[in-house]
Design goal:
Blueprint: H1 2-19, E1 28-33, E2 47-56, E3 62-65, E4 75-78, H2 86-91, E5 100-105, E6 125-135, H3 141-147, E7 154-155, H4 157-170, H5 177-191, E8 199-200, H6 201-206
Antiparallel strand pairs: 1-5, 2-3, 2-4, 2-6, 5-6, 7-8
Helix pairs in contact: 4-5
Length: 211
């Protein structure tokens, strides 16, 4: 009777564990420095400029430093857009420009079973990261509002054209109406999913890189 019960119990436990969804690994975060003034905090869709140092937790070996290696310049990336490891996307939210954090990132949110370069497989990584600057991302809510000149929560072809003209002029390129018209037509062809002649906030958020 006891053996029968133990067999049932172990089978039930196995099935429950196998069927349950395992919790996703977490990033351990520690604030190393926070500025007195914070005008905005980082969020998904923002472009961040960061300096960082990365270490192997197992032995403390530094595998990269943006201040020492390469061109010694900080790097830009878009938060939440899978341009960096998942640990960064999770751990660099709600930060201020000038803030430094220490992130301890488990393998599942870093380079996992494969590893990368100097990083062995299944490595827990430790990063010292400082945000130097935060900008609106190309697909952010703020960028949409900047383009939406009449505040109707949708973009017309004229609004997109005017935005492209301003961006070209900002970067020193001459305005070329014919070229802009072609770009606008191409953008709407790919962006305007419902074919109503406008790009909605939802369509804008997830789509074209040219905006």
């Amino acid at each position: 009777m006891l053996l029968s019960f133990l067999s049932w119990f172990c089978t039930s436990l196995f099935l429950n564990v196998r069927g349950a969804k395992l919790p996703e690994p977490e990033v351990k975060m520690e604030v190393l420095h926070k500025p007195l003034l914070c005008h905005r905090k980082s969020k998904y869709g923002d472009m961040l400029l960061v300096h960082y140092e990365g270490f192997l937790e197992s032995n403390g070996t530094m595998f990269h430093s943006s201040r020492v290696h390469g061109d010694k310049q900080p790097v830009w990336f878009t938060l939440g857009n899978r341009e960096v490891i998942k640990g960064w996307d999770k751990g660099l939210q709600n930060m201020c420009a000038g803030e430094r954090r220490k992130l301890t990132v488990p393998p599942a949110l870093a380079y996992g079973k494969e590893g990368k370069g100097k990083i062995p497989p299944e490595s827990t990584l430790v990063f010292d990261i400082e945000i130097m600057e935060i900008r609106n991302g190309p697909r952010s809510h703020e960028s949409f509002r900047e383009m939406d000149l009449n505040d109707d929560w949708k973009l017309s072809k004229q609004e997109v054209k005017e935005y492209l003209q301003k961006e070209f002029e900002k970067h020193g390129y001459s305005a070329n109406d014919t070229h802009h018209e072609e770009m606008v037509e191409d953008i709407f062809k790919n962006e305007d999913e419902d074919g109503d002649g406008y790009i909605s906030a939802r369509e804008f958020t997830f789509q074209h890189d040219e905006l």
